[in-house]
Amino acid sequence: MGYHIPWRRFFLFLPVLCVSLSNIHHTSYACSVEERAALMEIRSSLERANATAPRSWGGPGDCCSWERVNCSGRTRRVSHLHLSKLYDISTLPSTHGGGFFWSFNTTVFSEFSELQFLDLSWNYPCSLMSDGLVGLKLTKLQYLNLTGNWLRQSILAPLGELVSLQVLELHSNGMSGALPVAVFENLTNIRELNLSDNQFNGSLAKALLVLPHLKILDLSENSLVGNIPISSSSDEEPASLEVLNLNNNDMSGALPTEQAFQYLRNIRELHLGSNQFSGKLSAFLFSLPHIERLDLSGNHFEGPIPVNLSSNLSLSLKSLRFSQNNLSGELSFFWLRNLTELEEIDLSGNTNLTVRVNIPGWVPPFQLKQLTLSGCDLDKGIIQEPHFLRTQLYLEELDLSNNNLSGSMPNWLFTKEATLVNLNLGNNSLTGSLLPIGHPQTALQTMIISNNHITGQLPMGFGSIFPCLSTLDFYHNNFYGQIPMSLCHINRMRLLDLSNNNFSGELPPCVFTDFPDLWIFSISNNQLGGLVFGGMNNLSVGFALHLGNNKFEGPLPPLLSGSLVILSLYDNKLSGELDPSFWNLSRLGVLNLSGNRITGKIHPKICNLTSIEILDLSDNNFSGPIPKCTSASLNSFNLSGNSLSGDISHGLFSTPNLVTLDMRYNKLTGNLSWLEDLGNISALSLGWNEFEGQVTPNLCKLCPRIIDLSHNKLSGSLPPCLGRIFCDRKAIEITNPFLLLYVIMEIYITVKDTRGFTFGTKGNQYTYGYNFYDKMSGIDLSGNMLSGEIPWELGNLSHIKSLNLSNNFFNGQIPVSFANMSEIESLDLSHNELTGPIPWQLTRLWMLGVFTVAYNNLSGCIPNSGQFGSFAMDSYQGNTNLHNMSQGDECSPSHGSGAGDTPPEGSDRITDDPVLYAVSAASFILAFWTTVAFMVCHPAGWNVILKSAKLLSWCCQF
């Protein structure tokens, strides 16, 4: 059989065939030798830094096929380099030169003459910090991303030569100084400029707003000040700018006028949140022709939202964010009835703003995705009679927290079609229970119903109902029963808080091991029991584990491991000895084991917890000596309420950063000379031990806010330098933003679930949190054997709130200088050997709430003005020569008595006030002669004289 070749068709197909062969010919070529060499140089730089280079780099074949590299299909030259996150810095070794530094020659990029896209983001720290991009000739570069490299501002100068740039990403670099406007003015093709999350200061230059093609300008999270530089000239062409983001700066003043805003009439998104703008909102903002998103949250705007039934609102509006202002008046959602595109409303934190949501029979034309109405004057029936909420079928975020809403738990939200991603109903007064739900809520990721009155048990299939939760916060409700095993099926959980409920039984062990992403787990203040950690020792919780105030028992596992930073197990039934010899908790920063039954000695291996910052072993049964450790990180140490013993005259251990130390209620001995090593101490509590010797003057070199040396065996006199012991501390400045975030989270979680610091004042024990610096300052030296006169210099402690010198052997007079303690609230000088009168100047102490001088040898009159008119006689009992005046008489000093004399040089001193003395003298003279005239000239005056004589006779009997 022969074959007939259709030559006509062949010749028609020949051009197509030639093109195909041409393409095959081109694809057979590799990228240029120069480009390949440049890529290999970058690879060598990574290898020298012990980082892992892309695996395919250096392999056979065309470098255009390597990962992170794209080439132009026509020229086969490198056009795109995706070099973001080239390594994980946490896996790299430190060096003796101050840490890891990736150094490479940035001029290698000059070999990529066709480069259009370059992403070098998140490669900190690299040589971009110093070398920059000087000398690069990337004439075709359109996209440059240098985000997250912690760059210096000097990197910006050569960027002005990249005239083809359309997108420049420079956020999260920590650059400071004024905005380098001159650099950006050269970028005449720029369309998107992102300088957010830096430290630029100064004012915003108008030159940035007038770049001819700029559509998106993001300057959020900087330190810009001043107002928005919009011209009010009517003959200027409107700016091309469509998105302006100035959130999180320090800009202030009123917003520009309506005429000025005509210059920005192309604006689609205006983000001015978290600044200091003030004044009233103007109606024209809502009628800008293209406005879609308007964010004015977190400012100082006041007055009503200028929207009503007749408002001409822009129909393009999608988002209204006005939270955290001082807005008032009323806003009805019915007034937004024409906004068919509306997706987001946030009015939270405006406590005086009345928000009307429920309009029976009205079906709004919009479908919201986000509704945030936390902490405003909201319809209280929004849950009980949810006319509006039932019309919103596509809600993704619903926040009705902090509104004191009543009604039952809205289980009707969890429908089969529900789209909720984040739900916050916290801090209300909801009741009812969480009923079994027949439809899995696969979209829901955050569920917060904390601080309500929800009761009942968690459904057994809880994990199947909410399989995608990452945040579950049921804190402070009335849930009871067991924790269902199905909870462990939620493998995306990051925060789990079931604390302050009535859960009982044993925790499923899987909650400690089966949550790979769990960051915080809090179940404190319940009735849970069983072995601690369910007998597990390899914990998966990544940051904080709060199990305090339950009934967990048994010893701590000897092979405990994990990445925990906070471990809180206070007030349980833990027993056995504390042996951390084989613990693998290298990140542990907070360990709270207070209020348990742990026995034995404190194991010296506790010193191996080198990252520990807060260590609380109080109220256990520890005995023996305190191990001597070296810890640069420890700042809070609590050993109170044990049976520890031993002489610590030669120091406790090297803790240069210790801020709070509590060793009360032990059997510790020795002197206090070691206190001079505690240079950063703010709260020093050593009461109820057996320390002896004198109160060392070395204590005066410190700056503690609280000193408790009560009930020891201290003797001798007080050093006068105690009068200058309080001083202002310099705030610790944290410049690393990642460390700052860590510290903020640690403080928040720690304060939420710790006992706090206890100090005795006003006859009671009070517990203070980590803000005790602002709330309390005091000295307690009671119950010792101290003697001599009370130094007048103590009167210089003007900010002290509590002073207790009771149950000692102090003699001499009460220092008149105590009148300078203007903030003192509690003063206890009882059970000493003090003599003389109570200084009348103490009546100036208007803050004084508790005062006692009982059981001394005081004499004279008891003051009855000021706060002294409210103290009971118990405050003065045991002073046989001290008497009370009749009502109406003043306890003024008598001539030569010494009670009211200004102390001589070197003794008691009191602040002089010449104006007060002049007024007092004039008042005394006028009152004296008026009284004389009354008694002599008025018939009733003789009755007063007779009564005064009887009173004087009665007083002399004492």
TrEMBL record:
Gene3D superfamilies: Ribonuclease Inhibitor. One of its GO terms (cellular component) is plasma membrane. It is found in: Cell membrane. Keywords: Cell membrane, Glycoprotein, Leucine-rich repeat, Membrane, Repeat, Signal, Transmembrane, Transmembrane helix. Pfam families: LRR_1 (PF00560), LRR_8 (PF13855), LRRNT_2 (PF08263). Residues 34-72 form the Leucine-rich repeat-containing N-terminal plant-type domain. Coiled coil: none annotated. It comes from the Eukaryota. The chain crosses the membrane at residues 915-937. Residues 1-30 form the signal peptide. InterPro entries: Leu-rich_rpt, Leu-rich_rpt_typical-subtyp, LRR_dom_sf, LRR_N_plant-typ, RLP_Defense_Trigger. Residues 887-907 are annotated as: Disordered. It is a single-pass type I membrane protein. PANTHER family: OS04G0647900 PROTEIN (PTHR48062:SF56), RECEPTOR-LIKE PROTEIN 14 (PTHR48062). Belongs to the RLP family. This is Leucine-rich repeat-containing N-terminal plant-type domain-containing protein.
